[in-house]
Write a structure and sequence with these properties.
Layout: H1 2-25, H2 28-32, H3 42-61, H4 66-79, H5 81-90, H6 96-123
Length: about 120
């Protein structure tokens, strides 16, 4: 069981770290889904969310901060949901494959939040 706890946390940290880096390496897709109602530029929000993902990755990767990291990660996954809704709306007239990808992101947030909360819970066991 201890190995499972560790593996889940390491995979989550790697996922967050990879996505965080992607916000800086290839920011354009992220810029495109930033809700226009947010103040400032889309690129600013892309970079801020990338920093948040990298910070969550670091917190989840370290056993001492894993519990807090799991909680912050769950909050981050919930916070980006409006961007996924915007993407789904914006893609409503795109080809079927692109629409499917955009629409699939919506329910995918639920297991991501639950995964982060499970990592948090396991950190305290």
């Amino acid at each position: 069981m201890a190995a499972d706890k560790q593996t889940s946390a390491v995979v989550l940290a790697a996922f967050l770290g990879g996505m965080g880096v992607l916000h800086f390496v290839k920011p354009e897709p992220f810029d495109a889904i930033v809700p226009s109602r947010l103040p400032g530029s889309a690129r600013l929000w892309t970079h801020l969310s990338g920093v948040a993902e990298l910070g969550c990755a670091a917190a989840v990767a370290v056993p001492r901060t894993r519990g807090l990291g799991g909680l912050l990660t769950a909050g981050l996954f919930a916070a980006v949901f409006p961007a996924n809704v915007k993407m789904a709306y914006d893609y409503r007239n795109k080809p079927a494959k692109q629409r499917l990808i955009a629409y699939a992101r919506l329910p995918f947030q639920v297991p991501l939040v639950l995964w982060a909360l499970r990592v948090r819970k396991r950190a305290h066991q």
